[in-house]
Structure prediction request, 70 residues.
Amino acid sequence: MESAATPDTSEHRSAFAERVLRETNRRCFGEAPRIAVVADGAPGIWNITRDLLPGAIQSVDRFHVKQILH
Prediction:
């Protein structure tokens, strides 16, 4: 499993963040009027979202919401 996290002191993105950036560019996310990111709620994912897709709507997926509530 690849980690989304990178140390706070690192000036470099994680390999996962680089893959996300390439994919968002390939799919022209910058041209989208709205972007929504559905993830498991891990802070690393939200940090990547905030850094690469500012203004994106962030939502926790249903499976993880159910885990949190039960």
User: Anything to note?
Assistant: The first helix runs from residue 15 to 26. The chain is about 45% helix and 10% strand.
